[in-house]
Structures are given as C-alpha cells and as structure tokens.
Specification:
The complex is a heterotrimer of chains A (161), B (421) and C (532). Chain A has 161 residues and is an alpha+beta fold. Helices cover 44% and strands 11% of the residues of chain A. In chain A, strand 3 and strand 4 form a beta hairpin. In chain A, helix 1 packs antiparallel against helix 2 and helix 3 packs across helix 4. The termini of chain B are far apart. The chains are: A alpha+beta (161), B alpha/beta (421), C alpha+beta (532).
C-alpha cells in the first residue's frame, strides 16, 4: 500500500480527484469523497494526507482536520485489515448487542477500539446502522451482517483473513 | 387479533419482485410513465398536484412537500438544487435503505419530476457512508437511467436537463438534519446552519435548495400518474398516501411495513409484525425513531398519524417503531439512547453539546448503581431547560427520550438509586 | 429605517441591524459570547435570547434583524430563566479555575455568571478533559478546557486574516479548538484572538501572570508603529509597582475605530512597546565634550542649543525631523525653523529595510505622523542634501530628532562622514541609539505615551493620544522643549507660552490650513480628517 506518511496520488487518481471536484458547484463539495478515496488508497487518513488533500482543495489544513475528526468513517490511525463495527444502539441493545460485543472481545482478545496484534481485525462499537430489523447486527468492512449469534459471529470471523 | 386492513401497496409494490432495482423491471411495472406526463406539465402545475395530494415529508418533520417546493423564489435565475436526504440514521429506521436497494428508479423518476417543478438541473443524493450496498445499487440505477436517456441533457426530447450526483456521507447522524446535510455536502463538518436564511432561499452552495427524504420523493411518480385525489384519498385529511414503518425490537416479524398513515400502533405490532415473541408482555414502544417520546404498553391504541401521536404526547418522526418487551430495563435503554445523543451531538450549540454528555454520564451512573437522589430531577430539568434553545431539532429529539423514559418509568429508575445516596 | 421597541424604549436603527446592536443603541445590554460585530454570525452560544412579541419562543438576538414595529423584551421571566440555563450549560465542563486563570477579572463567564447565572451547580460527574497550557504561537496560549467554543477565534482567522489556522475538531462535548497538529498561530494579527476570546481559553503569553487586570489603569492612545495609527488602549501597572517586573506598561489593546482599524491591531503594534520601559531610554540632557558626558539641567541644555542656533547662520543648520513626532512637536519645530530661516529641513530618512505592508492594517511606512510632517511642511530639503552639506562642512549644526541614521537606509559611510563633518550634532529623542551616542548634545524626549498630542495617519485622519504615564527621568515633550527653546532664543515670538499640547494644536489649527477649525474636543475619540 502506498505510504500514508508521504502521500501522493497517481495521475489517474488525480484525474479522479478533478472529476469529483467538477461534480460540485464549489469544488470543496468533493472533500468527503476525496478523503474517502485517499483512505481507500493509503489505508487511513494521516496528517500528511490531510495536508496533501488540503493542497488539492486550496484549503487550510485545519479545516480538513475539522472534517476528518468530525466523521466516524475516517481513520486517523491505520485500522486492521478488517473492521468489525457492532451496532450498540437501541434495537440491537434490546436483542443482545452487548453479548455480541463481549463475545467478540473475548474471541479477538482486544477491547473495543483496539486492533488484534496480528493486524487482522479492528473492533468498534457504532451507533445505529439502520438495519434494526436484523438486530443484533454489525458491519464487517463493507458488508452488513445481521441476526447475529455467537456461532454466526464465529463463522464470520473465520472468513476474515 | 384483528385482521390488518388491506392497504394498496405503493412503495413496496415491487419489493419482492426479483430485479426490482433494475430499469427493466421498473419499466415493466409502469415505471417512468409519470415522467413524460410531468415533462409535459407546467412546473407550477406539478407543485400544485403535489400540494393537493397532501404528501408530507416522510423523513421526520412531516412538512407538506408541495408547500416546501413553493418556497423556491419565483423567477429566480440562480441555480437551484434538489437534495435527497438518504442519510438515514434515526435509530429504529431502515425504510430508506429498502427503497434505495429495491426501488431506486422510483427515487430517480421522482427526482426528475421534482427538479422540473422547482426548476433545478442538479440533484444530489446524500447517502450515509455506511450504506455501501444501497449506494452501489442506487449508483447502478443512476447509470442505467443515464444510459437510457432518462438523465442528462434534453431528457426524452423535452429540452429539460437534469443530472444526479450521488454523494456519500462519512459517518455522522447530524447530517440527516437538512442543513447539517448541506454543510456536509459542501465539504464541511455537518454543522447545521442558522436559519434564516432557510435552504429554499439560500441552501446548498448558497443557492436555493430543496431537501427531501427518499420516501417522500419516491411517492411523487405515483402522484403524477394516478392523481392527487387518489393519493390524498389513501390517507387522512392532512396527510395523503401510505407510508413505510420500520418495526424492530421485540416483535415476531421485524421489518418494513407499508400501511395506512393512520394505522394504530397496536395493529402495527400485533397484526403486521406478529406481536411479541415468546409470549412475553409488551412493556413500551418508541413509535417514531429514538427521538420520539416513549409510549407504555397501555398507550398503543393511538393512531400513527400526526394528530394521534401528538395527542399521546409523542410524534411519528421517521416512523421507526422500536418495541420493548417486559424484560427490558428502561434505565439501561435510556443510557443507550443518551450515549447515542452524546456521541452524535455536533458540538455547535452550547446547550446540546454540554448537556448530552452530562445526561449520558448521569444515566450511566444510575445504571451502575451509583445514582444520587437528585439525578432524575436534574435530568428532567436540564433536558427541559435546553429544549428549544438550539439551532436544529437534534436536542429536542434527545429530550424526547430523556423526559419520557423517566416520567413514565420513574420507579424503575428510583429502584436503581441507592437509598442512602 | 426600522423603528422598534426594546424594553419599552423606542429606537430607530439602520436596516439590517441585529437585535443585539439595536438593543445596545437603546441602552440595553443583551449578553452574548459568540456574536462579534466584526465577524460573521455563528449563533452558537445561544445566550443572546430575547423575547419578541408574537413569537412563541425566545429568539437569538444576533441572527434576528430589527424590523419595523417589532416589540422586543430582554427581561421577561422566560428570557432570564433561559439565560440562567445557558450559563449553566456553558459551565458544565468548565474547570472553574478562576484563581489561577489570567482572564479572571475580565472574563465574561465570571461577569455573566454574576449577572445572569447565579444557579446552584449540579454537575457532579467527571468533566471532559482537554489540552491545557498549549502554546499556539509566539503570543497566544490555549487552555481548551476553559474554551466555550464560541468560534470567534476560528472566524477571525478565516474571515479577517484569511489564514485559517484554527479549527474546531471532534464533535459533541469533545469538540476542541486547535491548530492543525504541528502548525503555529503566527499570522501578523494573532493577538486579536486573545482580545475576542470572551473567556480564559486564549491568553497572552507575555502578559499572563504579570499583573492581575484589576490593578491595571487604562488610557486611550494611538499606535505609533506605522502610518495607520490604529486606535489603542494602553494598560499600565502603577498600583502594584512590584508586579509586571516593575515595568509601567503592561499591554496594549485595540480600541474600536470604524474608519481606521475596526476592532483590530497587528502584533507588531501590540507588542512593540517594551522600549518605553527599557534601559535605552534617555533620562536627562547631556552635553558631551572631550570624551566626557556632562549632565545638564533643562535651562542649561536649552541655553546651549539656543546659543548654537544663534551662533550659526541659517544656511549652516540642518534639521532632520521625525515622523514619530506629533503634529504639535512638528509645528513647534517648524515655527523655530521658520523664525531662524532654516531651510535645510526634512523628515524623510529611508528605513534600512523596506517596511512590510498588507491589505488589512499594516502600512509600509513605520511612522505614525508622516502625513502631519508633510502637511506642516517639514520637507523643504532632501535628507541626502543635508547630510552632504554636513560632510562638506557647509552645514555645521546638525539637529537630529529620534532617527538612528547609522541604522537606516542611508549608506553608513555617508552618515559617518556627515556626523564627522558637522561641528555640532544635537540629538533629541526618547531613546539612545548609535547616532545619539556620537552627539554633542542629547535632549531626552518624552515617549508618546508619556505626553499627549496628535498624529495624522496616512488617510489624513488627525487622532489624539493621551498621557498614559509620566515621562521617565527628565524627559519632556518635544513641543515643550521646543517652546522653551523658542523663549531662550529671545526676540519676537508671537505665539503665547504653551503649557499644554492643546494650546500648540490651537496654533497649528490657526496657521496650517489642513488643520483649520480643529480642536482637541472636536477630534474626540475617533479623530477628524484633514481638509483636502
């Protein structure tokens, strides 16, 4: 993966940045999509990336930092290869989210917010992912996984390499 | 158990049809037939039709849609934007996800019609960042629509141009608030904007903007096709159509239910969702997303329309119904909800920023058995004092559960507070 | 013009005026934190709630424009209760560390708590912890726990300087003000964020812990740092002389003048006052002969200079006036030069390096009264010609005000030759420098804060500055020294003896057309433009 400490987009990626910027009446509208692109490319949004992106938008780095620290989906530190985000909001709480979290912390040997020592999984708890009909549920990378039981969680973990 | 009243399905009519997200299936079932009709109508006539239909915003605020559209300044040559709020985030709500995944073309067709009504040539669909699959499916539908000449320049030879930009959020509940969403769309933190100016005058990128919910706009093609009178006739005097209820928690069949806007909460739980599992008793229901004040088991004979719920001291909100059986600890539920509001407060206005965190700390302490005898009155007083003092409705939404959970289940809280505290 | 009623008082205001400003005009104070007239409306602090008749809920005054016929109440039970609540919210996570906070005494949390709060605190849980004592730049230090997140400082850097260094990071009650990690706040106006911070979050690294603000005295003045002439307040520590490390001047704050500096001043102006209390100051008249310094009394010193001015012919005398001198000083000097027929007079000594300039306040010309010197006519010759004359021994008496010619844009060799060529070099100014070190007669001037007077800024605005502290040692105002000199010169002097700068100014107004009709009273606090 390209170095997040010395970020530079490829010519192709820069074309994509310009395309995204062109979609909005003011190019700053593309800040979230471009940060997401950067995170996809570099793995997380380092301070160096924030400054680099600020340059692409002719913005103050402080205002990019505001955005990165405001939203939950930007990682300021490298996450594990997989991110498991368990919903602990009301419907999932009613249907046992806590036992799912407890099961995961025990199986992964990490606390919520931590990454396994082999860098495989980062475990998070999150607010409502709006899939309450599948409660208790969690997001595994880009997938929603619902109607969780400890057994189902184990099967899902087995698939995470 | 009574038999549910049969209501014509509008939003969900195709939900179970394979390939319902594709242009082909959408067309087979009458899709994109409202569009040529609307493109042949005067913009003002479209707005009038929507006004007559009694369509109200289905995202939470229930504002009359046609009236909202009419706030766009007449004759303004400024660019105008149509923004779709697909930042579904209200706990207990998931119906927009179903629409994006199972009927995306209804939203696209509705957007083109709405854009024509407000003279907009650019629409933004703000999809919450966690919704990866809905984003993929919706983006695919947008591409299909472009390829079929339904989007872009000179749509179907009408001379009308309209583009859709699909924008993804990055994880913040407040971006479901319409002006927080606009700030976020502009590439900023999702801080709601002070009003005035209102978005219809000065919204996205400083231009006149209409923000509508997914479900609201998905209703528009049906209104144009079958007429305002038909749509209005499906509902109550003040709200036309049907609506989608997201039902979750302790019910046998959780899921999205399309039914009358005035169905009773009891019917929704017992007729549509199979009642409470395991023969357990109902304890409480949150009827309209986590921000709606809670109802006790003996308050569920209310109708779910605005008047019915208002009379019961609560609100329809996003129609996210969360059902709690007798095993639920209400103090724990309050702590969970308070944690959510503390986590999601954007931090802009002092009352909300400071008291959401404060109330969470108190609620957490109570659940841990470290409550103090003044705690409950402090929460109630702090919540009530902060209500109505902030830029947006987020804090008022938090006050709903803070106050109602304690007022309706006070003994349960008091039982957790040590006597010598 | 909308006419409205606020607390029963009718007031007519300009269209677009918000309710905080309209109330101010009606003599009613609406408490607020985030609103600042020089910044955009944020509407975040929620303190400026007022009741407007026919409105179901109190509204924020900052974002509500006055409308004709509006009836506003700022003292209803509901408004008072709302204010009390908002004050409690502002203080939920505040550390309440007033005893060790440098803002104490001028903190709007303290002031408004006493006026509008007075609730019994109910917060018993652990407060949110944030970074403390974080230096942001050379002048500003942050305590994020004290911050009420009003965003004034962020808006200042975005909207006034356009530098955008500050942001509010995270969200909810973990929101905090800060810089991009690793950056510093060092724009040329950074000190203003200290002024506009209503609480103890942003304090002044130089001023903090030097003296408690309630021991300070204040005088209105005008910055002497450049041709802008920003309006300032000078704060002095005279009641506890052992505080502030014995220095009299404690700090400079901007004073609002809509036509000159609005609410702001630059950091160079704000922090450029240390010389006033430092040991380069000249404290007594000194005559230097045969390598020995002899301290003189004023009568003696003035007599020495008068004798020299009589001894040389007018064309043998050169004067380098300073645009640091006030209109009164320059006018008094002009009168003497005129009486004696001295024509080799100039005020234009080029700086060693060209001054910086920007589009906000800072002017390249680092003198406050260039325009006054021009209008009074102290530029009949060229500085270089005067120095050439001294080098060539045509000019025998060189009378230099303030300038350090040896640290200027003039070639050092030329200056050295001129100083060596003159038979007598007189230096008059508040501080010693390399040029004064070689002078035969040194006359100590009072610094601008030690006397009163007026400067004419680059726009032609004549502005008063007041006496802040007494002159150090024997130093005296230049107009006063020059008045004594005029009397010592004997002969006919039509001007009455002046004992106050105001009298000299009256003479100036009577004789120089640009100033005609002006009086100190008429100048007021914001000055007047010279006649075109």
């Amino acid at each position: 993966m390209p170095d997040a400490k010395r970020p530079e987009f490829t010519a192709e990626q820069l074309d994509e940045v310009r395309r995204l910027q062109g979609l909005y009446p003011d190019k700053q509208g593309a800040l979230l999509p471009v940060l997401r692109l950067a995170q996809d490319v570099f793995g997380y949004v380092s301070l160096q990336i924030e400054e680099y992106v600020a340059g692409l938008f002719e913005m103050s780095p402080a205002h990019v930092h505001e955005v990165v620290t405001f939203y939950t989906l930007f990682f300021q530190q490298p996450p594990g290869r997989h991110v498991v985000s368990v919903c602990h909001n009301l419907s999932c709480h009613l249907l046992g989210a806590k036992s799912i979290v407890d099961h995961l912390t025990q199986r992964l040997g990490v606390e919520v917010g931590e990454t396994t020592s082999d860098g495989r999984v980062t475990l998070l708890t999150v607010e409502c992912l709006c899939a309450c009909e599948q409660a208790p549920m969690m997001q595994v990378d880009d997938r929603y996984e619902g109607l969780l039981t400890p057994e189902k969680v184990d099967r899902i973990l087995e698939g995470l390499l | 158990m009574s038999v549910p009243v049969t209501v014509e399905k509008i939003f969900t009519r195709n939900f179970d049809r394979p390939g319902s997200h594709t242009l082909g299936v959408y067309r087979e079932t009458g899709g994109y037939t409202a569009l040529p009709k609307a493109l042949g109508m005067e913009p003002a006539a479209i707005t009038e039709e929507v006004k007559q239909s009694n369509l109200r915003g289905l995202g939470g605020a229930a504002f009359p849609t046609g009236m909202k559209w009419s706030f766009i300044p007449k004759g303004s040559t400024a660019p105008k934007y149509l923004v779709i709020n697909a930042d579904e985030g209200e706990p207990g709500t998931f119906k927009d996800r179903y629409l994006l995944e199972r009927d995306p073309h209804a939203l696209i067709e509705g957007m083109i019609i709405a854009a024509r009504a407000i003279d907009s040539h650019t629409g933004f669909v703000y999809i919450r960042g966690e919704y990866v699959r809905p984003w993929e499916i919706f983006s695919g539908a947008v591409k299909e629509a472009y390829d079929a000449g339904l989007l872009g320049r000179n749509i179907q030879g009408s001379g009308f141009d309209f583009d859709i930009v699909v924008h993804r959020g990055a994880g913040a509940y407040i971006c479901g608030e319409e002006t927080g969403l606009l700030s976020s769309l502009e590439g900023k933190k999702g801080w709601p904007k002070i009003k005035p100016p209102f978005p219809a005058i000065k919204g996205a990128f400083g231009q006149p903007t209409i923000v509508n919910n997914v479900e609201t706009i998905a209703a528009v093609p049906h209104i144009i096709n079958r007429g305002a009178a038909w749509f209005a006739g499906l509902g109550t005097k003040t709200q036309g159509g049907t609506r989608l209820y997201s039902v979750s928690g302790h019910v046998v069949k959780p899921g999205v239910v399309e039914t009358s806007v005035s169905v009773t909460l009891r019917s929704l739980i017992y007729d549509h969702c199979g009642g409470i599992p395991g023969g357990r008793r109902l304890k409480a229901v949150v009827p309209g997303g986590s921000s709606a004040p809670i109802l006790t088991a003996d308050e569920i004979d209310v109708t779910m329309d605005a008047d019915g719920l208002k009379a019961a001291g609560t609100m329809i909100g996003s129609a996210g119904v969360i059902v709690m059986d007798e095993t639920v600890s209400i103090p724990e539920a309050l702590m969970v909800v308070a944690r959510f509001y503390a986590h999601e407060s954007c931090g802009q206005c002092t009352p909300c920023r400071e008291s959401t965190g404060w109330i969470y700390k108190i609620s957490h302490r109570i659940v841990e058995g470290k409550g103090r005898k003044d705690d409950l009155d402090t929460i109630l007083d702090v919540a009530k004092r902060g209500a109505g003092t902030t830029i947006c409705a987020f804090y008022d939404g938090a006050v709903g559960p803070y106050v109602s959970y304690i007022e309706k289940f006070r003994e349960e809280f008091e039982a957790l507070i040590p006597r010598d505290a | 013009m909308p006419k409205l009623t606020i607390d029963g008082k009718e007031v007519e205001v300009a269209p677009g005026t918000n309710l905080i400003e309209a109330a101010r005009q009606a003599g009613v104070e609406v408490p607020h934190y985030c609103y600042h007239p020089g910044l955009s409306i944020a509407g975040q602090c929620r303190l400026c709630m007022v009741d407007i008749e026919k409105n179901p809920r109190p509204q924020i005054g900052c974002n509500t424009q006055a409308a004709d016929g509006m009836v506003v109440h700022t003292q209803t039970e509901r408004v008072l209760e709302t204010r009390k609540s908002i004050m409690e919210f502002h203080l939920v996570n505040h550390p309440l560390d007033c005893p060790v906070c440098d803002q104490a005494g001028e903190c709007w949390l303290q002031i408004y708590y006493m006026r509008h709060g007075l609730y019994d605190p109910r917060m018993v849980d652990e407060k949110v912890h944030k970074p403390k004592a974080v230096p942001l730049g050379p002048h500003v230090i942050l305590d994020a726990e004290r911050c009420i997140l009003c965003s004034r400082c962020v808006r200042f850097c975005d909207e006034v300087t356009g530098t955008g260094e500050l942001g509010i990071f995270n969200r909810g009650d973990h929101s905090e003000i800060g810089l991009f990690p690793g950056k510093t706040l060092e724009n040329k106006y950074s000190g203003n964020v200290i002024d506009i911070c209503p609480v103890g979050a942003l304090t002044d690294r130089e001023f903090r812990f030097q003296v408690r603000v309630w021991y300070l005295d204040t005088a209105r003045s005008v910055c002497n740092g450049c041709a802008r002439g920003c309006n300032i307040e000078v704060h002095t520590s005279r009641r506890r002389v052992h505080h502030n490390q014995g220095r009299r001047l404690a700090r400079i704050k901007p004073r609002h003048n809509p036509d000159v500096n609005r609410w702001w001043i630059c950091d160079d102006g704000r922090y450029g006052f240390r010389w006033i209390d430092d040991d380069t100051r000249l404290l007594a008249p000194v005559r230097r002969a045969n390598g020995k310094d002899v301290q003189l009394g004023w009568d003696e010193a003035v007599a020495v200079l008068a004798e020299a001015l009589r001894r040389y012919r007018a064309e043998e005398i050169g004067i380098l006036a300073s645009p640091q001198m006030s209109n009164e000083d320059l006018f008094a000097l002009q009168r003497i030069a005129g009486r004696l027929g001295i024509r080799a007079v100039d005020h234009r000594v080029p700086p060693r390096v060209p001054g910086d300039e920007d589009h906000l306040l800072i002017r390249a010309d680092k003198h406050p009264n260039r325009r006054g010197a021009e209008l009074i006519g102290l530029d009949q010759a060229e500085t270089r010609a005067i120095l050439d004359g001294a080098r060539d021994r045509r000019i025998k008496l060189l009378w230099i005000f303030q300038h350090d010619l040896l640290d200027s844009g003039l070639p050092t060799a030329d200056v050295t030759a001129a100083l060596a060529g003159a038979e007598m070099v007189v230096f008059q100014g508040p501080s010693a420098n390399a040029t004064s070190a070689g002078a035969h007669l040194v006359l100590p001037s009072a610094a601008y804060v030690e006397r009163e007077g007026t400067f004419t800024n680059f726009q032609g605005r004549v502005q008063r500055f007041r006496t802040v502290v007494e002159p150090l040692g024997e130093a005296a105002a230049d107009w006063d020294i020059l008045g004594r000199l005029g009397r010592a010169l004997g002969g006919e002097d039509p001007a009455p003896v002046a004992t106050r700068a105001e009298q000299v100014f009256a003479g100036l107004a009577g004789q120089v057309p640009a100033f005609s009709g002006m009086t100190y009273r008429g100048l007021g606090d914001v000055g007047l433009m010279v006649k075109a």
